[in-house]
C-alpha cells in the first residue's frame, strides 16, 4: 500500500465546506475557525490524515453522519 500522510497546521484559519446534495433539505455550510475534533481529520489547529494512494480513500476514517458534521461545524 502506498500512503500519503498529510499533517498541516492552520492557526485558527481552517475553512470547511459541507454540502449534502442527497438530502431534500440540501444542507450547505461553510465555516472558518478551528479544525473540528469529531470529524476524524485532526482537531484544533491541526489536520492529520493518511490517504491510500492506490484507492484514494482516507485510511482509518470513520465517515461521520450528516448530523455529526453539521454539529461539529456549528462549534467552529
Provide a short characterization of the protein structure.
By secondary structure, the protein is mainly β. The chain has one helix at 66-75; strands at residues 3-9, 14-19, 28-33, 42-43, 46-52. The chain starts with a strand and ends with a helix.
Strand order in the largest sheet: 1-5-4
Q: Based on CA inertia axes, which overall geometry fits? A: globular
Topology as a string of helices (H) and strands (E): EEEEEH
> What would you report as the Rg, rounded to the nearest angstrom?
13 Å
- End-to-end distance, in Å? 34 Å
Number of structurally distinct domains: 1
Q: Give the proportion of residues in helices.
A: 10-25%
Given helix and strand content, the structural type is mainly beta
Mean pLDDT score, rounded? 86
Strand content: 35-45%
Number of helical segments with 4 or more residues: 1
Show unreliable segments. none
Sheet with the most strands, sense and barrel status: 3 strands, antiparallel
How many DSSP E strands?
5
Amino acid at each position: 500500500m502506498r500512503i500519503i500522510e498529510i499533517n498541516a497546521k492552520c492557526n485558527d484559519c481552517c475553512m470547511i465546506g459541507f454540502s449534502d446534495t442527497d438530502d431534500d433539505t440540501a444542507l450547505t455550510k461553510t465555516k472558518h475557525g478551528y479544525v473540528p475534533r469529531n470529524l476524524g481529520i485532526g482537531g484544533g489547529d491541526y489536520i492529520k490524515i493518511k490517504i491510500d494512494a492506490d484507492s484514494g480513500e482516507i485510511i482509518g476514517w470513520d465517515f461521520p453522519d450528516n448530523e455529526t458534521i453539521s454539529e461539529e461545524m456549528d462549534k467552529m
